[in-house]
Amino acid sequence: MRIERVKLYAPELEPLRRFYRETLELPLSEDGANAFTVQAGASRLTFERAGSDSDEAPYYHFAFNVSANKIAESVDWLNGKEIPISPVNGRTIVRSESWDSDSVYFFDPAGNIVEFIARHRLRNRSVKPGFSSEDIENVSEIGCAADDVNELSRLLRERLGASVYLGGDDLFTPLGDEEGLIILSSLRRNWLGSNKPVRIFPLEITVRTGKPGEWPILHYPYSVRTY
């Protein structure tokens, strides 16, 4: 499943614009007073100014696929840019045997939990030395908080034709594949790579399925577009 675009919300855009454009060196593809978009490889990541009626500033978890052989280099790259890495159980690089992947977590200026993930089942090794923004291939995960993971999973599997990726339960269910995953997470846990509880905030996701459509997601402030 390919995630073409993700739209997230934030109260302050300028720190995010500088972070993604200047620090992570992602090209700015759209810009305006109330929103901007960067090109992250094959995906677009949009931030729109959040309304002032929210009691809590939105924050999200999302991941970028990076070149499978560059996770260690990505740590050096982040360190060189003075971006603190968020360890998990004391580990800078988090290994998942079941997913055959290695991940690094860090925060952006809005407090979003950002992940670089090297998926070794993908044939996306790079022969170029070091790490650069060219090794950021796409938005490969977007977290969706759910008060009922199983209910939301059933709906999205039906609408998107997506399958559960390597198993799930009522706390955590990923839908899709290595190219793109919608991560359904219960409100009863924290986002990995942080001590932040999973919370529901508005977001929009655009995925390629071959069947155009747009629809709301139950009672959630989410919108999914397909084409």
UniProtKB/TrEMBL annotation:
<dbReference type="InterPro" id="IPR037523">
    <property type="entry name" value="VOC_core"/>
</dbReference>
<protein>
    <submittedName>
        <fullName>VOC family protein</fullName>
    </submittedName>
</protein>
<dbReference type="InterPro" id="IPR004360">
    <property type="entry name" value="Glyas_Fos-R_dOase_dom"/>
</dbReference>
<dbReference type="Pfam" id="PF00903">
    <property type="entry name" value="Glyoxalase"/>
</dbReference>
<dbReference type="InterPro" id="IPR029068">
    <property type="entry name" value="Glyas_Bleomycin-R_OHBP_Dase"/>
</dbReference>
<feature type="domain" description="VOC">
    <location>
        <begin position="2"/>
        <end position="119"/>
    </location>
</feature>
